[in-house]
Amino acid sequence: MRDDGGRANEPTSYGLRPPEPAPVPQQKPYEPKPYAPTQQQRPDGTGDGTGRLLGGRYRLVGRLGHGGMGTVWRARDEVVDREVAVKEPRVPDHLGERERANVYLRMQREARAAARIDHPCVVTVHDVVMEDGKPWIVMELVRGQSLADRLQEGTLDVREAARIGLAVLGALSAAHEAGVLHRDVKPDNVLLGRGDRVVLTDFGIAQVEGEQGLTETGAFVGSPEFIAPERVLGQRPGPESDLWSLGVVLYAAVEGMSPYRRSNTPATLQAVLSAEPQMPARGSGAFGTLVMQLLRKDPAARPGAAEIRATLEPAAAPAPLAATRLYAGDGAPTGGSRWVPPVLVDNRKAQLGLGGGVLAAAVAVVLLLASPFGGGGLPAGWQVRPENEVLHADVTVPDDYARTQGTDGDNVNYKDPSAVFQIYVDRLDPATDKTHNTLPADPGAWKTYYEKGGRNGIEFTNGKVTTATVKHQGRQAYDIVTDYTPNSASSDPNPTRYRYHELLVPGQGTAYWRLRVSMPAAGKAAKDGEELFTRVADGLKIHDL
Predict the structure, then answer these.
(1) Annotated binding-site members for ATP
(2) Is the pLDDT of residue 443 over 60?
(3) CB of 227 within 8 A of CB of 213?
(4) Do 395 and 344 have their domain in common?
(5) Would residue 397 count as lying in a domain?
(6) 270 C-beta neighbours (distance < 10 Å), count
(7) Does the pLDDT value for residue 41 go beyond 60?
(8) Range of weakest confidence among 53-67, 187-201, 404-418, 496-510
(9) Is 304 in the same domain as 366?
(10) Residues 409 and 440 in one domain
């Protein structure tokens, strides 16, 4: 048994002790309905049950996963013809009949509570089917990998960790408002679905915890390295306990593992109670400070959901910085005006190779731009990316720029491998997007927005904005250039300035497209960035404009 809460085909808890026996309501005996094809399931639940029909509508297709608390199946809802996930709960074999029935009743009640949670980042519970005297939980089928699986490939950067953290926070807030505590927030229960969707699973469905605390029962359900200290002490958990677990998940996202992981369960529990972890090395600044605040031993001293959201939102937003200042090992800015990509900060060996890399990149940009699109097609190293579903447009970008798609499904990012430049394109419509206070396609409105500091007025300072009317695909469009100082560098006596160069293209009605290229505001990098903007703008082809 592992001390990290288990993976696929492994237990997900360290023990199970039921609550005190309660009166057991009479259950009608299960009368199986005929189905085909038939696969006999062994009494221990480990056989192949493919083909079985549950509740007269859910046909088991195959196993998706297996753990100490149950098996998850892929199934088809034959009534509405859709695929679903079905969780078959299990309990330890040592429990008696009355204790087992009591456990099933608690699981059924908690499943119904989880079904009341209405949030896009919470796995949807469709139904609870009683078969064999136990509740089978029918849920939406989320296609993707878990955060735990993703971390096996490597750690996340702060921006991606913050994005996932915001989604999990939204799910927990919705659950807490519905009176439901998760009690097992960990990377295994965070699913990364299609289209950058993040889903939190197992809201009280696959866990059983008695009213008594750990000091009375001698056991608990959950993964010790992600469980809050008050739960280890047997105290009654609250929303703050889930937020502690969120803090551990954020720590693990940027560092690769929980700071409390030890070689055995007692050592892990002792670390949760007494260890004071170091600030995550890969997540310093406001993000790291928030993580350390979430890991405070006193539940009352941890930040609330609003404060957590206020910190994660800026960290998850597309970076306004095209590059960052070079810092010495003690965190103080070095002299001069040198800049390096954020991924090279604090990496001395990589910094030594930066000069040659920048020179090579500059030469490549010059060579690429020497051949205009109109003179025989795309230059070498460029491609047209059809973005029909997201933007209803084609975007022309360098081949080696990495693509990511926004969580709202209406924007895309293309990132320069050296992190010097970034291309961002989105489609906006103030008439339909009422939740984000979307600005209209008005250069004056955008000018005011940037001069006031951008997002929430705190994105940057000293914004200098110029606007012009241009043509794109024969239609009137707007060119906006904003030079700014990052808010984080506002106290620097000689701050590095950066630039947004944007193109706004109005469409039908109130909808419009926005192209942005982020770059340094001065020097050779600014010149290359402006040439990059010109190429990308010329290659932006909007459909049905």
Answers:
(1) 87
(2) yes
(3) no
(4) yes
(5) yes
(6) 15
(7) no
(8) 404-418
(9) no
(10) yes
Q: Locate 24 and state its tokens.
A: 């057991």
With a threshold of 0.85, does the pTM exceed it? Answer: no
Residue 236 is assigned to a structural domain of this protein = yes
* CATH code for the domain in which residue 521 is found: 3.40.1000.10
| Options 184, 188, 242, 416, the catalytic residue | 184
Higher pLDDT, 366 or 272: 272
Distances (CA, A) of 128 to 90, 114, 134, 351: 15, 11, 10, 57
Degrees (nearest 5) of the Cα angle 51, 52, 57? 105
Residues within the annotated binding site?
Answer: 87
Strand partners of residue 427: 513
- Is 503 within 8 Å of 515 (Cβ atoms)? yes
Q: Between β-strands 393-398 and 541-542, what pairing exists: parallel, antiparallel or unpaired? A: antiparallel
Is 182 within the bounds of a domain? Answer: yes
Q: What is the mean pLDDT of the chain?
A: 77
Average pLDDT in the 378-394 region?
83
Residue 287 lies in a domain: yes
Task: Give the domain extent around 468.
Answer: 339-542
User: 353 and 300 in one domain?
Assistant: no
At residue 446, the pLDDT reads: 94
CA count, 13 A, side-chain hemisphere, 51? 10
Residue labelled with tokens 């049905």: 544
Q: Give the pLDDT confidence of 390-439 residue by residue, as tens digits.
A: 888 999 999 888 888 876 667 889 998 888 899 999 999 888 876 667 89
Is 184 tagged catalytic? yes
The answer on 276 and 373 residing in a single domain is no
DSSP string computed for 353-370:
THHHHHHHHHHHHHHHHT
Q: What is the count of structural domains for the chain?
A: 2
